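Reader question, answered in our methods column.
A reader sent in the components of a multi-part assembly and asked whether the whole thing could be modeled at once rather than chain by chain. We filled in our standard form and ran it. Here is what they sent:
COMPLEX SIZE: four components
ENTRIES:
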Amino acid sequence: MQDPDPIAGRMTDGGHQLRQRVYFEATDFSGRVYHARYLQFLERGRSDYLRLLGIRHRELATTGRSFAVSRMEIAFLKPASIDDIVMVCTEFRGATGARITLHQRIMRDEDDLLKASVIVALVGPNGRAVRLPPGMRAVFGAKEDPST
Amino acid sequence: MQDPDPIAGRMTDGGHQLRQRVYFEATDFSGRVYHARYLQFLERGRSDYLRLLGIRHRELATTGRSFAVSRMEIAFLKPASIDDIVMVCTEFRGATGARITLHQRIMRDEDDLLKASVIVALVGPNGRAVRLPPGMRAVFGAKEDPST
Amino acid sequence: MQDPDPIAGRMTDGGHQLRQRVYFEATDFSGRVYHARYLQFLERGRSDYLRLLGIRHRELATTGRSFAVSRMEIAFLKPASIDDIVMVCTEFRGATGARITLHQRIMRDEDDLLKASVIVALVGPNGRAVRLPPGMRAVFGAKEDPST
Amino acid sequence: MQDPDPIAGRMTDGGHQLRQRVYFEATDFSGRVYHARYLQFLERGRSDYLRLLGIRHRELATTGRSFAVSRMEIAFLKPASIDDIVMVCTEFRGATGARITLHQRIMRDEDDLLKASVIVALVGPNGRAVRLPPGMRAVFGAKEDPST
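And here is the structure of the entire assembly that came back:
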């Protein structure tokens, strides 16, 4: 079966994959992708993963809530360059309280370019973390993350 | 016939169309897309239009040449918001000497969000404009732009 | 007399000047500043000009209003490069209804790198232009712009 | 004594401090700074720290070398907002082989907004790490980092 709208990537067993092009804007004068722009690729992957799970930023915002990154560990392994097509791979690793732990990779063909561990928190209008609603936890499989 | 690789958009009669998602990164605290980010959408459209015409930034770079924007006129008509899907429409309007004139629009469904007239120049290693090679002019249809 | 807080630049006769550094993030793989980033330099100049005139984005936002760019004409004349210090020069040209017209230049020493004509509009919560309050017009000198 | 050019920040005991304004461009539709933009603030701090130590990106580039981030751990503690002035604090923690370890913080007044541990590597034209030249190690105090 074909994806109805590949612009949002596709669900995989335990996660999500999104193909992205490296345009001019993502590069810097070293000729490679500027390190902070990889985080934008990661965020596009997370957003589309949530989207395909039925969680929309705009709807959350109407209730004053949004997801905020609270912690990242990133290993920059190999650089990407202009015109490259990369795959942003997102894997759910667990959810506790207000927090979701994801592992993410950026790949070019078989090469890992970047690996990241990312913790995002659901925050309320005052910027404080709020408990994930049960429906949202269920969407991720309601697995408790033993490591957090 | 289906596009072999829709990530690069598709050629249209006289131009090119590219669908793009509005992610977090493109918005600002007004809740809408930050004005300068629309230019990145436009550049993605131009890059993929050139790509489907067979012109690659990376190959050009090996000969010390690249395209640089030399002039833009932009009317910001309606704002785009997070989660929107927009269409970047690029239309060739003419080529003379070192310069290519394009008209570009960003649309959401039937609405024009932005209209732009863009002049790009091929520049050499010293940053000076260099004449478009005949092969490249032919690719665009070798139409002379009467307005420039 | 010295500026109390040079981070916001300084008022000039009829406008404002802001010195800015070109960091890695503003460059692209051509080795020069990515064209859309110049707009961010321009916006920093406009924001600090408004700031020194007593107009704050955050305070406007509490009343549901913000400034939005409605039209730009930009001539990219010479490129800036990593490590450069550039001067963003902003000049008030007139205000009518909801709109303010500014001329902006980015200079490196005596060289003009970019010239722009920018129209910004005050918009309300629904994104529609709202009339500039008399106090704000007075701040700019209440000059009517004959050209708009 | 006053800093001759405060645009590059100032050296501190064991590091560097750079004041930066939060402009429109750094925010996202949540109303706060977009997480990936904090990395740009960090990079401006590192660049100006190196600059005041006498190490210039452009000069390095003439020998085909540049600094690349190889690893980051980032804790996002409190958000910054439009119009804020933040302080980017960079502290040298050690250098071994091709790698420099830095600790960085972004503060607003007395509050820590973000803490990061950053490893940057000097890379050659092929993207491979190259040993730091002795002169560069001397500049940092030639302290060996016991933790790496």
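What stands out: Chain B has one domain: 8-139. The mean pLDDT of chain B is 90.
Send us your own complexes using the same form.
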